[in-house]
Amino acid sequence: MEIILLILIYVFIMIYKLKNKTKKQKNIFSIMYIHLCGVAYVTILPIDFTLDPKWLYHESISVDYGNIIPFEDLIKNRRGAKKGIILNIIMTIPFGFILSMMVGNIKFIKVMFSTFILSLSIELIQLIMTIFLLNHRSFDVTDLITNTLGGIIGFIAYKLINTKGFIDNLLEIKKS
């Protein structure tokens, strides 16, 4: 169900919002859209659209709504903490990289802020889903930090690789 909705959103945007854009802009948008769909897939999908408040009849279930202590799992040496940190960084490296391609001469602070807002949105959706649907995800400040770091790394990677316009030239679509 979600895949159909994501495809419809993509088609709508391509037809109505990007119809006058260049092929390069459409290509970069498509890459970003695919990346964001992948991020949504690993962080919030599937969504239980029934909005069934399971907590009403599962009062015995203990729910931890979130973690506001940075790197608490790592400090307490919990299983999977290092892996989670690495995966959160890796997940948003493409976001910082692609955003830099989309905007061109984007400032560091804008990439950092945009990545933070993306991460905060994901964490808040996870928190809401946990509270109302008893999903197994929760708000974690460590994720905010590591996701933002990933976006920053993506920005730096783009700046290093694109020093001579390499990526910009690679993405140009030549007309035959």
Total strand segments: 2
| Helix/strand order | HHEHHHEHH
Question: How many helical stretches?
Answer: 7
What value does the average pLDDT take?
A: 85
- How large a portion of the residues is in β-strands, by DSSP E? under 5%
* Main beta-sheet annotation: 2 strands, parallel
Strand order of the largest sheet: 1-2
Unreliably modeled segments? none
Q: Structural class per helix/strand content?
A: mainly alpha
Q: Indicate the overall shape.
A: flat
Q: Please, how many domains? A: 1
| Rg from alpha-carbon coordinates | 19 Å
Distance between the termini: 39 Å
Helix content: 55-70%
Describe this structure as you would to a colleague.
The structure is a single chain. The protein is mainly α and 176 residues long. It has one domain. The chain is 66% helix and 2% strand. It has helices at residues 2-17, 23-43, 72-75, 81-103, 108-133, 141-161, 166-171; strands at 66-67, 139-140. Strands 1-2 form a two-stranded parallel ribbon. Helix 2 packs antiparallel against helix 4 (81-103), helix 4 (81-103) packs across helix 5 (108-133) and helix 5 runs antiparallel to helix 6 (141-161). The longest helix has 26 residues, at 108-133. The N and C termini lie far apart (39 Å). The model has no long low-confidence stretch (mean pLDDT 85).
Summarize the structure.
This protein is mainly α. The chain has one domain (2-171).
